[in-house]
Amino acid sequence: MDSITVFWDRRMSKRYKDPFDLFDEMIKEIEEEFERFEREFMRLGSGGETKTFGPYVYGFRVTIGPDGKPIVEEFGNVKNYKGKPLITEEREPLADVIEKGDEIRVIAEVPGVDKNSIKVKITNGGKTLIIRAEGNDRKYYKEIDLPAQVDENSAKATYNNGVLQVVLKKVKGKEEEGKEIKVE
Asked: What does each of the 184 residues of the chain score in pLDDT, given as a tens digit?
């Protein structure tokens, strides 16, 4: 018996008869949360003139981090702000950061825009990548903290079929910046 079966047998069998019941419950909770967002949005907007824009876009991705703990990443234009929905004009694209050797590769989904309207900028001394794009009815914005400092002169960006790929070279020998303080 593998570890997943043991976990299921001990913890979940009391509450769920089928492993897929857990996923059904999670989807039901997400649907209920969207209904609460929509009701709250309509309640707040009914008091006066409201600005409307594009569709509501919300999604999330769950991955396992290097420490074995789950990482939940949200994307879209619906944010949870102090327990209330916050709808923005700009969508946050789904992005992956892949670090391999002396290179960092950022892959972001920004469909529906022209490549000439995409602006990619490196800030914070080569530690942050900002992606901004604007299309016919879509706007994207994302700030990505890079896992290492990069050389902004080495950056190469390509855009094909709605996918932006930025390749950056790490700065050698400058991983730990700062001033050393002598202990007395």
From this structure: 454 444 445 555 556 667 677 778 888 888 888 888 778 777 766 655 555 555 677 777 787 877 888 877 777 777 766 777 667 777 888 888 999 889 999 999 988 888 889 999 998 888 899 999 988 778 889 998 898 998 888 889 999 998 999 999 998 765 555 555 555 4
- What b/e readout covers 42-65, taking b as 16+ CB neighbours within 10 angstroms? eeeeeeeeeeeeeeeebeeeeeee
In the sheet with 118-123, reading across from the earlier edge strand, the strands are 58-64, 70-81, 84-92, 139-145, 128-134, 118-123
Residue 2 phi, psi (nearest 5): -85, 170
pTM for the model stands at 0.58
Which residues 6+ apart lie within 8 Å of 75 measured at CB?
Answer: 57, 58, 59, 60, 61, 91, 92, 93, 94
Q: Rounded CA gap, 86 and 172, in Å?
A: 41
Distance between CA atoms of residues 87 and 21, nearest Å:
31
